[in-house]
Design a protein that fits this description.
single chain, nucleotide binding, 2 domains
């Protein structure tokens, strides 16, 4: 049984806790947060307010990092240097360059770093990936990703770091819609060019953008259109569309549909659902956690790695720089920086 700790007891930590609790081989043995009022969240689990002290006093196999974005790299480094595997909540890092440093950490330490891009394990995504790999769909010509959610100002007031460039890295593109960006690049391939516009269309007192629009071009010629916003009235269903030469595939309302050239529509898959106010997180956190635990126990690479997650940071940095310059950006400028 793996001895597990959670570092950071904010909103998303409860999702990780549920995944630990339902896993076959993980047991929560310690939690850590600088806010000592949270020591009663898990009353039967030892509480610490210092990561290094916790690692000194507890025998930890895996640490779940559920901290503000700007702390991800720093705390992952501490854990790896203490021989502790890391399962890290998204995003990978505050920006691409820091993500590249985390990749170096993962390559130079025996302990593993897994990134929580759980939507890759949704049934709809798995089936679409299989179809594109195994069936005669011809090549992908276009991809569309749409995220229209709601985040009121109280969301940022509750955790002010969420609205700051230096601590969050960005707004909707890194906090709400990064999973959609991850899937766009997972289907699209290696990114080449980006033209984007980031803006604020609400009156919230935040630094980061609440709305983003982008066009991406990949090395294989596939193009993608992306839009995300936190300015909608509700958390609407995420939509992902993949157009091939023979059919169009759409994931919406957690279902995968095929639209053929004759206008026929077929439902191909449907995701497992979760109940509650955070239903839009999806139900695959537990799958991602279990996959990582199995990889740790069996010493395999069957999990979402830092290298898998780094392209999403490239897309985010490309959007930020393109918006600032109001020009199309060749992403090699970021990679070779």
């Amino acid at each position: 049984m793996l001895r597990v700790a959670i570092i950071g007891l904010g909103t998303v930590s409860t999702v990780h806790y549920n995944g630990i609790k339902t896993s076959k081989n993980g047991q929560l043995v310690a939690v850590c947060d600088i806010d000592e009022t949270r020591q009663f969240v898990y009353e039967d689990v030892p509480f610490y307010n210092d990561v290094e002290k916790m690692l000194e006093q507890e025998d930890i196999d895996v640490a779940h990092i559920c901290l503000p974005h700007y702390l991800h790299h720093e705390v992952s480094k501490i854990c790896l240097e203490n021989g502790v595997h890391v399962f890290q909540e998204k995003p990978l890092s505050i920006d691409y360059q820091e993500g590249a440093k985390t990749k170096e950490l993962a390559e130079t330490h025996k302990a593993k770093i897994g990134i929580c891009f759980q939507n890759r394990y949704n049934d709809s995504v798995i089936e679409l990936k299989r179809i594109l790999k195994e069936e005669d769909t011809s090549w992908i010509t276009a991809i569309k990703g749409l995220v229209a959610w709601n985040r009121p100002e109280v969301y940022y007031r509750a955790q002010p770091w969420r609205g700051k460039w230096a601590e969050a890295g960005a707004g909707t593109i890194i906090n709400q819609a990064i999973h959609t960006l991850d899937l766009i690049q997972w289907f699209g391939g290696d990114l080449r060019f980006c033209k984007a516009s980031l803006s604020n269309i609400t009156n919230m007192a935040i630094e980061v953008e609440d709305t983003a629009v982008a066009n991406f071009t990949f090395d294989n010629g596939t193009t993608a259109f992306y839009m995300s916003t936190n300015a909608y009235a509700i958390n609407s269903s995420v939509e992902l569309e993949v157009v091939t030469q023979k059919a169009t595939y759409v994931i919406k309302e957690n279902k995968l549909f095929k639209f053929d050239k004759d206008g026929n529509v077929t439902k191909l898959a449907e995701d497992e659902k979760v109940q509650g106010t955070k239903f839009y997180y999806g139900a695959s956190h537990a799958t991602a956690i279990q996959r990582f635990y199995d990889a740790v126990e069996n010493d395999t690479d069957d999990y979402i790695s830092v290298a898998d997650a780094l392209p999403s940071m490239l897309m985010i940095d490309a959007m930020k720089q393109s918006s600032q310059s109001n020009q199309s950006l060749d992403v090699s400028e970021i990679i070779n920086h």
